[in-house]
Amino acid sequence: MQAAAMDPAEEPPSMLWGLDPIFSAFARLYVRDILQMTESTQVPGIYFYNMHPIYKVDVLGTVVYKRERDDFFCYGVDDSTGVINCLCWKNDLLKEREDPSKTAGKQSDGAQGGFNPVAELKKLKEAQQKRCRLEIGELLRVRGSVKTSRQQREIMASTYYRVDDPVMAEQIAWMMEAPQLYRQCYDKPLQLQTNASSDSAVSSLSKAINIIKDFLKQKSVTRFRPYDVLDLLQPLISRQPQTADQEPVAGSSGCQQLRQLLKEALQVLQDEGVVYRRVKSQDEVYLVTAEDKDLLMAVKDIIREDSKREKYAEKGCHVLHILSAVRQRSSLNVSKAALELVLRSLECNSDIISTMENHYIAV
Predict the structure, then answer these.
(1) Of 121 and 297, the one with more pLDDT
(2) 276 and 286 in contact (C-beta within 8 Å)?
(3) Which of 20, 87, 170, 273 could form an S-S bond across to 165 if both were Cys, CB 3.0 to 4.6 Å?
């Protein structure tokens, strides 16, 4: 595999990589994405996924082939999106070769009765060796750094072990957690603010969004109007720092700034799908998407009814088809982001399942 190189003009400066929390973590990426990541032109061994600098990954998959050398195992790990080589170095326990005469002596000592710490230690070593020696078909979890050797992308394992998963609980938990990480972290491009004034504005806006979200969650709000949350943002305006060279804007006031901040915060919440307006009128009423039982029931009914049709019986209903049906049945103002939030809620409650990417079917 030929490793693709990052365009130097698009690559963020290396001195800013540490600002990305993903850089210091083991990224739980799909093998497909690990194989397709572009390599940094500034620092070899650093790769980029959606502008996030990555050099450590965490992979769970099935062993599909293995090779053993004196110092390491080479396992091929398949997570159903691709196969990647994992070089797992042997520790001293795996390299040990016991003397038969010493083994016989230990056995004779243990035959005298009582607790034999030497024999128990040997059992512990054997158990550890068993977890490090895997066979084809067994489940392996690997953590390590990504390397490209002989045009082949591989993982140099720092930690690896066999996973006992008879009822597939570990694999199911992994499959449910990975899409959440992609939506919340990996698929959001890295954005680094360098302007102090823009940092202040973004900080105030993010605080306002969090305040409104906390209010909606703590009070279990189903619907609200802007003036219901207006006073909650008042401290953000009164504490806003003023610079020495800042000039007052003609006609501006604290009340206008407060309303502008609220307007921007509500717009962001609508873009994220957290809230939406069923009917756009002068009376601004916002509905909380996760608490709107009518919307949840409408989406559930649409998927259940259309899943019975021959066209959607195999793959399930596509998210765009569901969105079109929801807009016809419930409200034209339902956004795709709001629908995706509803679909995640229904999937977590086991009311629907995703058969493939962006396709859903009723349980």
Answers:
(1) 297
(2) yes
(3) 170
Residue of 16, 7, 9 lying closest to 39 (CA atoms)? 7
Dihedral sign of CA atoms 76, 82, 84, 90 in order: negative
Listed in sequence order, the residues at least 6 apart from 319 whose beta carbon sits closer than 8 Å to its beta carbon are 336, 339, 340, 343, 358, 359, 360
What CA–CA distance (Å, rounded) separates 339 from 53? Answer: 31
C-alpha angle 192-195-198 in degrees, rounded to nearest 5: 90
Three-state SS at 332: coil
Amino acid identity for residue 202 in this structure: V
DSSP assignment, residue 183?
I
Angle between helices 336-348 and 319-329 in degrees, nearest 10? 110
Is 273 in contact with 212 (CB distance < 8 Å)? no
User: What CA–CA distance (Å, rounded) separates 60 from 169?
Assistant: 13
Read off the pLDDT of residues 238-258 as tens digits, 9 standing for 90 and up. Answer: 655 554 444 444 445 778 888
Q: Which stretch of DSSP H or E encloses residue 86?
A: strand 83-89
| pTM greater than the 0.85 cutoff | no
Of 24-28, 34-38, 278-282, the poorest mean pLDDT is in: 278-282
Long-range contacts of the stretch 45-51 (C-beta < 8 A, 24+) = 45/145, 45/146, 45/147, 46/14, 46/17, 47/146, 48/6, 48/11, 49/186, 50/186, 50/187, 50/188, 50/189, 50/190, 51/10, 51/12, 51/189, 51/190
Span 277-286, pLDDT tens digits: 988 888 889 9
